[in-house]
Design brief:
Layout lengths: L1 H27 L11 E4 L7 H8 L33 E4 L4 E4 L5 E3 L6 H19 L8 H35 L6 H38 L1 H4 L2 E4 L1 H26 L5 H15 L20 H6 L24
Antiparallel strand pairs: 1-2, 1-5, 2-3, 3-4
Helix pairs in contact: 1-4, 1-7, 3-4, 4-5, 5-7
Length: 331
């Protein structure tokens, strides 16, 4: 019964660790395994920029320019505002940990190939293409320093989010490995508990970075949504998934601690039972003992039995039921 209790005590944190790993994998692989899941979404369908505003944004002088004429600004000599199509943008962008997905104007959804540090490459390419597009349409300006630095910062945060997710995956995998042997001894339980602490910290850091990135980007876009018509929101299902994984990891760590102090293996009782069985081999069944050197102590012929009736000797004081080792030498 004690062994079964130990098994159940180890099984609970093992299953919690497995659930934590599954939840973090589901969140981290958004856009790859589950293309309907994403960190946050940016919708530029209603993007609308006046050419004058774009000029002021690009040269860093503000977003409310005076009504003056800029002969170099033509954007294919259009008279209306600039839309997402004019800038070569798709309607919707879903940003994930390892890639991003986009929805074209005809409603087709596609995702880029997953890659490490994808944000730095994709955003640098996008800003370069944007500058080329502006130059081709009459702008002799480049994106201001504030925009390029923000893009670079997002790429750095995205890369470290990927690194922490990898650490969390490895730590949870190691925790599962040691958890397989935690039923054997307290030593394995102790090691598993230490690994669980590292895995919990890594899982919380991964979820925290993903959440912070989503909140900062969505907040920045929403702050200017009334001006430019761009909408953004973070995915509560993604956040619930990764933070549920953190909750599972915390629960697993607590239960691994219980396996050290409350659900110890029943080695002591087995050893005591073994010692008791050994002791029984050396304890004679009779109440006393008989010296083999005495003639009447040998159950020989009937003559001896009549002439020398048996005498029973009590055990020496303090050694009840003891065994006389030197009696073998005289048999």
């Amino acid at each position: 019964m004690a062994n079964f209790g130990r098994f159940v005590c180890v099984l609970v944190p093992f299953l919690l660790t497995l659930a934590a790993l599954a939840a973090l994998l589901a969140g981290g692989l958004a856009g790859i395994a589950d293309k309907g899941l994403y960190m946050f979404r940016v919708n530029v369908t209603d993007l609308s920029l006046s050419p004058l505003s774009v000029t002021k944004i690009l040269d860093g002088t503000g977003i409310n320019p005076p009504k003056v004429d800029f002969p170099g600004l033509n954007f294919k000599r259009q008279s209306g505002n600039i839309s997402a199509a004019n800038l070569g943008l798709n309607d919707v962008y879903d940003v994930n940990v390892w890639n991003y997905c986009y929805t074209t104007q005809d409603g087709k959804r596609e995702c880029t190939k997953p890659a490490f540090n994808w944000a730095a490459t994709a955003l640098n390419t996008t800003t370069g293409d944007f500058n080329n597009l502006l130059t081709a349409n009459g702008f002799n300006v480049t994106l201001p320093k504030e925009i390029t630095e923000a893009v670079k910062a997002f790429g750095t945060v995205s890369k470290w989010t990927q690194v922490v997710f990898i650490i969390a995956y490895i730590a949870l995998g190691v925790e599962l490995f040691f958890g397989l042997f935690a039923n054997c001894s307290r030593a394995f339980s102790c090691v598993t508990f230490l690994v669980a602490g590292v895995a919990t910290v890594a899982a919380a850091a991964a979820a925290g970075l993903a959440t912070a990135t989503s909140v900062v980007v969505v907040g920045a876009v929403e702050a200017s949504s009334n001006i430019y018509g761009v909408d953004a929101h973070f995915n509560t299902r993604f956040l619930a998934t990764v933070w549920l994984g953190v909750a599972f990891a915390i629960g697993a760590g607590l239960f691994w601690m219980f396996t050290i102090c409350c659900c110890a293996p029943d080695h002591g009782s087995r050893r005591s039972r073994a010692r008791g069985a050994e002791a029984e081999k050396f304890i004679p069944g009779g109440p006393g003992y008989q010296r083999l050197s005495e003639p009447h102590g040998y159950n020989g012929g009937a003559g001896y039995a009549q002439q020398y009736p048996r005498q029973s000797y009590g055990a020496p004081q303090g050694h009840a039921g003891a065994y006389e080792p030197y009696s073998h030498a005289r048999v």
